[in-house]
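in:
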């Protein structure tokens, strides 16, 4: 029962004082309870427990025992505990933490696409479309300016011809 109270206190205090790093990691993971939003904005029990796990992983005073206790309370699954033994270490990067949770819940857990394969296309396509649109816009504007200049020259020539004809009729 002591572990439960420790867990509740950890949840209460970690929710109030999040680092930017923790919030950034939480923004990149979907809440696995309903897949309806990211963990940072979700208040379900599982999302709150995952927030505690993330907090434990990024602490400067990382303690594997505290993490394993939180992991056991969160999932209550020996396979996940075994899986974590090979992956969890001190000073994990954000990507390693995200990939740890993806290893547990699957690729659906990732809220942002990876920057490779089709995910690369997802990240690069908006930039490509912007550059392509600007190029097409430049070509259209350039063509419009050329047409206006040609029409202006044609109008000027027709005015000159009409003035010349009027002057001839007058005998000038």
């Amino acid at each position: 029962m002591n572990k439960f109270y420790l867990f509740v206190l950890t949840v209460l205090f970690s929710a109030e004082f999040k680092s930017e790093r923790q919030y950034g990691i939480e923004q990149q993971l979907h809440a696995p309870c309903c897949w309806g939003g990211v963990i940072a904005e979700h208040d379900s029990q599982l999302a709150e427990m995952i927030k505690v796990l993330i907090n434990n992983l990024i602490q400067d005073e990382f303690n594997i025992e505290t993490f394993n206790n939180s992991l056991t309370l969160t999932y209550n699954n020996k396979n996940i505990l075994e899986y974590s033994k090979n992956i969890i270490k001190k000073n994990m990067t954000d990507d390693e933490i995200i990939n740890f949770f993806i290893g547990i819940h699957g690729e659906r857990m990732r809220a942002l696409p990876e920057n490779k394969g089709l995910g690369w296309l997802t990240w690069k396509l908006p930039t490509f479309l912007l550059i392509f649109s600007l190029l097409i816009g430049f070509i259209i504007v350039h063509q419009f300016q050329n047409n206006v200049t040609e029409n202006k020259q044609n109008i000027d020539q027709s005015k000159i011809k009409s003035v010349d004809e009027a002057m001839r009729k007058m005998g000038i």
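note: The chain has seven helices and no strands.
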